[in-house]
Amino acid sequence: MQHVAMAMTRLSAGLAGLSVAGLLGLAMLTTADVSLRFLFGSPIRGLTDITALTAALLLSGCLPYVVTSQANITVRLVGRSLGPIAFRALEVFGALVIALAFAVMAWQGTAFALDTLQSGDVMPTLRWAVWPWWFGVALMLWVTAVTAIVIVLPTANRGRAPDDPGVEA
């Protein structure tokens, strides 16, 4: 299981790196589009179509890293005050909720992607199919759900908060 966790950590970091680079590229394209509109009255054709879907895909690519690095907001006040057994139980419960939430989002994302495939939805200007983008988002959500199971649940089961070495299991 340790090898799988290490592989998921590397995968999530790689996806986040690519996603951030993509978001920076998207920001540069948007800047170019605004500049072209201002200077020449001529925007980049279809950029509006691509921007929304690309942003959704790239932001979803960062989610596995958020889960891996446990950068989500966690309130541990109650668990600390109830003792180590309650702390562990609440950590496991929280990890399960995170995994379940991402699994439900992935399931719904997959259903939405299938809907766009079956209905033949396309971008308004470029007329490109939108389903590949939404399948990409759904895939990133599935990766996030699996990451939560592989990374967060075992950490929670050990009963130690990553930022709190004083809590004993």
What does this structure look like?
- The chain has 5 helices and no strands.
- The two termini are 21 Å apart.
- It is mainly α and 169 residues long.
- α4 (84-119) runs antiparallel to α5 (131-157).
- The chain has helices spanning 2-40, 47-68, 77-82, 84-119, 131-157.
- The protein is elongated.
- Residues 165-169 have low confidence and may be disordered.
Q: Which structural class do you get from the secondary structure elements?
A: mainly alpha
Give the end-to-end Cα distance, rounded to a whole number of Å. 21 Å
Give the number of helices.
Answer: 5
Give a quick account of the main beta sheet: strands, pairing sense, barrel closure.
Answer: none
Helix content: over 70%
Number of strands: 0
Determine the strand fraction and express it as a percent band. Answer: under 5%
Q: Mean pLDDT, as a whole number?
A: 88
Helix-strand topology string: HHHHH
| Unreliable residue runs | 165-169
Oligomeric description of these chains? single chain
Shape: elongated
Gyration radius, rounded: 20 Å
Key terms:
about 170 residues, disordered C terminus
Reconstruct the topology from this structure.
Elements: H1 2-40, H2 47-68, H3 77-82, H4 84-119, H5 131-157
Helix pairs in contact: 1-2, 1-5, 2-5, 4-5
